[in-house]
Amino acid sequence: SKNTGKNQVRFYDEELEQSERRRHQLEDELSQAITNEEFLLYYQPQVDAEGTNILKAEVLLRWQHPKHGIVNPDEFIPHLEEYGLIIPVGKWILEESCRQLKVWHNAGKSELCLSINVSANQFKHPDFIEFIEICLIKHQINGEQIELELTEGVAIHDIPSTIRKMDRLQELGIRIALDDFGTGYSSLSYLKHLPINTLKIDQSFVQGLPHDGYDAAIVETTMVMAHHLGLTVVAEGVENRVQLAFLKKQQCHLYQGFLFSQPLNVDHFSKLIL
Ligand code: C2E
Ligand code: CA
Ligand code: CA
Ligand code: CA
């Protein structure tokens, strides 16, 4: 009837209003998280085949929420992107990574490299390269000691400008890793066109090793191709010894996963490496 129709409209309005309110609340909370410095960095080791030497670590963002405790990035990074806040937070991540890396270098771990995730929006920002250059100089870090983890999303709109930026990064000595390799639609065409140094085999392919025939075939083929192309391969999500054994047989270069270590806060990671 006419009446229910009207009620439905009003009910819908209220719901919309409520979800709008929640949106604003979350946006406020995330803005405040920046002001109150509630973000922090965790570090997950990437080890060599012997499993002993920590050469590199991936930097992973966390939010120390005043009420909910440590929040994982899958829950808030999409919202940082949505509100444009990934730009200031991304700058903080780069700056804090360089600052902390210098602390570890000065403490004697002078060979350590950090691998830093960069979102597509961050990479596309016109100041991105300049910001990194200033960061390296300010913290006296060599480009060789930094790797940037990018996903396919970076080049979707403008391949030539992506290549220009990547070339400039490589001039600075910075290595470029293609993250979540194999999960996108055009991973292979990216390899052909972009100056990539490292492949990160996505954990979804590592999971089923060695018994899942598809995972095994995909990983084996990727490893052979990477060796031909002179690319470094990092396997992510290595959780057990049979996965490790399979990857070792394929001569994977670096291993990352719970088998070796969870992502660690700065104190725990310092204890591990120093
Ligand atoms: P990612 O770049 O693929 O990072 C790997 C994720 O796998 C991390 O989740 C890590 O904790 C998790 N992981 C590591 N080893 C294992 C394992 O053995 N088994 C399983 N099941 N998982 C493992 P995390 O830290 O929750 O990060 C999730 C995603 O959030 C990242 O995926 C990345 O896309 C994004 N992210 C994290 N930090 C940053 C950042 O600083 N900037 C940007 N733009 N994105 C970030
Ligand atoms: Ca990553
Ligand atoms: Ca990944
Ligand atoms: Ca992933």
UniProtKB/TrEMBL annotation:
It comes from the Bacteria. Residues 23-274 form the EAL domain. Residues 2-36 form a coiled coil. This is EAL domain-containing protein.
